[in-house]
Specification:
The complex is a heterodimer of chains A (about 130) and B (about 110). Chain A is mainly beta and about 130 residues long. Chain A is built from no helices and 11 strands. In chain A, strands 2, 4, 5, 6, 9, 10 and 11 form a 7-stranded mixed β-sheet that branches. A 4-stranded antiparallel β-sheet of chain A has the order 1-3-8-7, with no helix packed on it. The relative contact order of chain A is 0.30. Chain B is mostly beta strands. Chain B has no helices and 11 strands. The N and C termini of chain B lie far apart (about 35 Å). In chain B, about 0% of the residues lie in helices and about 50% in strands. In chain B, strand 7 and strand 8 form a beta hairpin. The chains are: A mainly beta (about 130), B mainly beta (about 110). Chains A and B meet through strand 9 and strand 10 of A and strand 5 and strand 10 of B.
Chain lengths: ~130, ~110
């Protein structure tokens, strides 16, 4: 059973760089996209970006200039860096796998986030 | 970006009630719509994909419908473990976007 374990610094000062890593246990790493999502306190979910095993990435334009997502296939892990953080970046950060669901009625592939890490709370405060 | 709007933001219901949550996309997304359940302090869990397909292990009291821009999540016979926040999410195009959430609590 696939599990995601994530870690990283939980307290940052404004202007510092957020750095988180997520490692994949118990399943295939290649053949999937891997995501970062965040959730500010008491608010909804925001997709940050994704990466696959070959390093192909997509990022949310709202964060793109500050976001770097990278992969280390030798360790089955992927990482997030977010530069120049402010209080607005305070959130729980999740990693998640993009899963594929094949619908036999429509004969299409659909994508969801089917496996999630437990989340890392990141607080930005001076 | 595709905006996802959920309503209501919150609702109070009793065990056994039928609950309906709606999600509207700012443009057509066909049936590229997922529903998630999130309990306090936990990561979201996917309930439904492709707008209406129940994911493995999800109780049959959950159902989804809709296509294009308007979607619905229905819980038929609310159970104590269903009190949570529910999010819709479009997988039609990047950036992936979520609705603002609907919190279902006990009346």
């Amino acid at each position: 059973q696939v599990q995601l374990q994530q870690w990283g610094a939980g307290l940052l000062k404004p202007s510092e760089t957020l750095s988180l890593t997520c490692v994949v246990y118990g399943g295939s790493f290649s053949g999937y996209y891997w995501n970062w999502i965040r959730q500010p306190p008491g608010k909804g979910l925001e997709w940050i970006g994704e990466i696959n095993h070959s390093g192909s990435t997509n990022s949310n334009p709202s964060l793109k200039s500050r976001v770097t997502i990278s992969v280390d296939t030798s360790k089955n892990q992927f990482s997030l860096k977010l530069t120049s953080v402010t209080a607005a970046d305070t959130a729980v950060y999740y990693c998640a796998r993009t899963g594929t669901y094949y619908d036999i009625l429509t004969v299409r592939d659909y994508y969801n986030m089917d496996v999630w890490g437990k989340g890392t709370t990141v607080t930005v405060s001076s | 970006d595709i905006q996802m709007t959920q309503s209501p933001p919150s609702l109070s219901a009793s065990v056994g009630d039928r609950v309906t949550i709606t999600c509207r996309a700012s443009q057509s997304i066909s049936t590229y719509l997922n529903w998630y359940q999130q309990k306090p302090g936990k990561a979201p869990k996917v309930l439904i994909s492709a707008a209406s397909s129940l994911q493995s292990g999800v109780p049959s009291r959950f159902s989804g419908s809709g296509s294009g821009t308007d979607f619905t999540l229905t819980i038929s016979g609310l159970q104590p473990e269903d009190f949570a926040t529910y999010y819709c999410q479009q997988s039609y195009s990047a950036p992936l976007t979520f609705g603002g959430g609907t919190k279902v609590d006990i009346k």
